[in-house]
From TrEMBL:
InterPro entries: Cycloisomerase_2, Lactonase_7-beta_prop, N2O_reductase_N, WD40/YVTN_repeat-like_dom_sf. It comes from the Eukaryota. It holds the Pfam family Lactonase. The keyword Translocase does not apply. Belongs to the cycloisomerase 2 family. Residues 1-18 form the signal peptide. The keyword Metal-binding does not apply. Keywords: Isomerase, Signal. This is Putative isomerase YbhE. GO terms for molecular function: 6-phosphogluconolactonase activity; isomerase activity.
Amino acid sequence: MLHSHHFFLPLFSGLATAANLYASHYSGTINYLTLTKSSDTAYSLTQTSSTRSGNQLPSWLTYDGEGKALYVSDEVFVGSGTLTSFSIGANGALTQSGKVTTPAGGVANCLYAGANGKGFIANAHYQTSALSTFKLPLNGGQPIQNIKYTMAGRGANPSRQDAPHPHHAFVDPTGGYLLVPDLGADIIRIYSIDKTSGQLTECPNAKLPPGTGPRHGAFWAPPSAAKSSRVRRGNAAAAEGTILFIANELSNTVSGWSVAYPSGGCITLALKQTLTPYSGNSSAPMGTKVGEIKVKDNFLYSSNRNDKKFDPNDSITQYSISSTGSISWVDLTSSYGTYPRTFDINKAGDLVAIGDQTTANVAIVRRVPATGKLTGQVANLRIGAAGTPENEDGVSAVVWAE
Ligand SMILES: *[C@@H]1O[C@H](CO)[C@@H](O)[C@H](O)[C@H]1NC(C)=O
Ligand SMILES: *[C@@H]1O[C@H](CO)[C@@H](O)[C@H](O)[C@H]1NC(C)=O
């Protein structure tokens, strides 16, 4: 006997394909979205489910596809915050699997160390000038480390640089080092990682010109090194030629840093290049705040919040990366909303999800993998209540669930 679902399912999936995403909203929700493609020109983006984040101001999502887990930072401004973890079930269903109390002001987290690079989690706390680390799974216990930063006085941008403000935490391509751009102190903080204990040891920091305000970072490795480091993960020799790209929120630039792996247990950074997000290296309009930065193959992208270049919408910049890691400006395209705080490129490299914070929408934009070009919006969905400019409301993070 012919079972109807065996017969019809392949036919149906030949016509329509689906991809999924998670988007967090500062009101305290994690939203599971489904993008359905019924033809090359017909896409629809819908909200499949919504789950409470288990904390007050969910600001950041780390998605672990292999481990079927999601980790959610809490930006709550006063008191303490709650880092939550979720396990992912059928149809993207989220079940809270752990939580810990952290310092307030959590704006980013990343997995690091352990056998597979997922044994521990590091958290940047903007508001409280701190970096906290925990062993996974989260079991309600105390941090392994809670590193507090101080500054002698205000920085060159006194209102924004009143104190150290770590804004991101991420590991280098070898998994041996953790980096933390500090927007308040104009420092890229560098730690070496003990892969067994998760303990971080401070390395000499990289100092930036006063008023730069580094926010987020992303690594690029030359194609040959990227290939061999997958085979020989952890081998510093495989990381030669690596470039660190940083989005500078206060100077509204992106910078490339050459990364060296000398013997002695610490990496060093040398400033290689700085560009604005605009054609001819022209300055950002008043009020712009460069936000997120991502690398895909030999292309770099920054999101440029509140530049209103596609008025009322903001913009995304595409840069190309040469074989030696130098960047050139290529194109400026719409963010299809305002305050693009977050964006994520899918693995195939043919779609980009942009999370516009204030308009509280997720825009799906087509990308041409060979040229890196963003060629227009294919779908767009409002998630929860719209925000107000400069407030911590609206959409905070979006990630492809793949
Ligand atoms: C581009 O402009 C930035 C900001 O003014 C400046 O720091 C940088 O040196 C300029 N880059 C080039 C290549 O002119
Ligand atoms: C801004 O983005 C919205 C959402 O996609 C779109 O409907 C609108 O046409 C865009 N406006 C401009 C001027 O690009």
